[in-house]
Amino acid sequence: MTETLHIVGGGMAGSEAAWQAAEAGVPVVIHEMRPKVETFAHRTGNLAEMVCSNSFRSDDHEQNAVGLLHWEMLQAGSLVMRSAYDHRLPAGGALAVDRDPFSEAVTDRLRAHPNITISNEEIDTLPDDGRWIFATGPLTSEGLGKSIATETGADALAFFDAIAPIVYAETIDMDTAWRQSRYDKGETEDERKAYINCPMTRDEYEAFIDALLAADKTEFHEGETAGYFDGCLPIEVMAERGRETLRHGPMKPVGLTNPHQPDVKPWAVVQLRRDNALGTLYNIVGFQTKMKYGAQASVFRMIPGLQDAKFARLGGIHRNTFLNSPTLLDDQMRLRSRPNVRFAGQITGVEGYVESAAMGLASGRMAAAEILGRPVPAIPQDTAHGALIHHITGGAEAKTFQPMNVNFGLFRPVEGLKGGRRGRRDRYKAYTDRAKAAWSDWLTAQEAQPA
After folding, report:
1. Which of 28, 260, 265, 281 has its CA 20 to 30 A from that of 43?
2. How far apart are CA 117 and CA 66, in angstroms?
3. 407-438: buried (b, 16+ CB within 10 Å) or exposed (e) per residue?
4. Can you give the residue ranges of the MnmG N-terminal domain (predicted)?
5. Digit-coded pLDDT (tens) for 397-437
6. Is the pLDDT of residue 38 over 80?
7. Residue 91 contacts residue 194 (beta carbons within 8 Å)
8. Which residues pair with 199 in a beta bridge?
9. Region for residue 48 given its phi and psi (left: phi exceeds 0; alpha: psi -120 to 50; beta: otherwise)
């Protein structure tokens, strides 16, 4: 009988790892402590629940590294990515997802798979034997966190993730706001009008920044440190870095024209993105926050168009733990000191839903091949998957290691191409062409192995 693969954590990474291994013919047990043991960030007991944003970000697989990662995952039969497309919402050039039907679909597919069993018992120690993948994500339980720290000889690093608020669409004042994707991006009318935009004058922006800086914030517990991941900064932290930071970040007014006042250029614009298929919920883009709930409601209602807003969910902040992977993991994502244990997802030091699921895909295939006695060839470094794995398992500087989204800065240069902004389009296309060829060859090599 084929050895069982145990996967701890049923988020994006754990769900994808389980699917890949089960599809290869390996029996899998997913150990997901929810709903028996709850977390403050999750709302359901479903697998692959989307906790923060509902966006899988850019879908451009020729000019964007995360879009390339989408493409690679689809070619490898990704459950997470296929389900994301099945529950896609209009979002310009981005892949936004109707979060509840998405996670329900992933859960249903995993429960129905003949090679998968789901257990809701908590695993709080690293096992001495068996084959395991730990994909416990940013909310690794205290007991397991201590076990990992004891095994690795050092505390897991930590930073803080912040959650953006969600607004009921019917409470947005559309006499002030308007629907438009930045630069009218998108192939359909729905995509070109995927965002709701709330304009601000200079005086309104300055008053908003003043209120943001003065608002009551969440205090951290003694011994906690607030090392934020730059891709998910709370808006008040951005504002503290300079009064213009938000206006050049999530509130930038470029690529948008207010049809209510077409001759007046807004000083800043707050965008909201659709959060469900019904179009009844919208999340405020880039507005992760550590403000206390009462302060959030009053400050966000200062935004023109949101003066009467009602919130389906206010923002929040939570601790996110991750390994110093360059010192702890080998190139097969195994713990060097305990090679029967692999890690996947955000706990390895990747950031984002797509990157987490991609590391689950890679670890699930690696573990299944090992169990079946068919070691998987090394994932080519020139692919998006390979660039991420190389970064977290040795390419990054261990002393300054921080969570990383996939980006072309992780890719090896293509010789003979022009550098700088002017050469960027040709350079990015060369990266994605090279990656697609390498990824296709890697998948073909696995299919060619004898059963």
Report:
1. 28
2. 31
3. ebebbeeeeeeeeeeeeeeebbebbbebbbeb
4. 5-374
5. 887 787 788 998 899 888 888 776 678 899 999 999 999 99
6. no
7. yes
8. 269
9. left
Residues making up the binding site for FAD = 9-14
Which DSSP string do the residues of 322-359 spell out, in sequence order? E--HHHHB-TTSEETTEEEEEE-GGGGTB-SHHHHHHH
How does strand 88-89 pair with strand 94-97?
antiparallel
| Residue whose C-alpha is closest to residue 8's, from 154, 131, 166 | 131
Tokens 């966000």 correspond to what residue?
300
Q: How many CA atoms lie within 13 A of 193 on its CB side?
A: 8
Report all structural domains of the chain as residue ranges with CATH numbers, in order of start: 5-156+323-435 (3.50.50.60), 162-319 (2.40.30.260)
- The secondary structure element, H or E, covering residue 83 is helix 79-86
259 preceded by a cis bond (ω within 30 of 0): no
| For residues 144-164, average pLDDT | 75
List the single range of 5-14, 114-123, 161-170, 263-272 with lowest mean pLDDT: 161-170
DSSP string, 386-422: HHHHHIIIIIS-GGG---B---GGGSPPPTT---TTT
Mapped onto helix, strand or coil, the DSSP state of residue 169 is: helix
State the first-to-last Cα distance of the chain, in angstroms, to the nearest integer.
Answer: 15
**What are the beta bridge partners of residue 163?**
316
Question: pLDDT, tens digit, for every residue of 49-75?
Answer: 988 788 999 999 999 999 999 999 999
- Binding site members: 9-14
Q: What is the pLDDT of residues 229-267, one digit of tens each?
A: 666 788 998 999 999 999 999 999 999 999 999 999 999
Q: What percent of the chain has pLDDT over 90?
A: 64
Strand partners, 316: 163
Q: Are 355 and 405 in contact (CB under 8 A)?
A: yes
d(CA 13, CA 357): 4
Band (pLDDT 50/70/90 cuts) for residue 450 is low
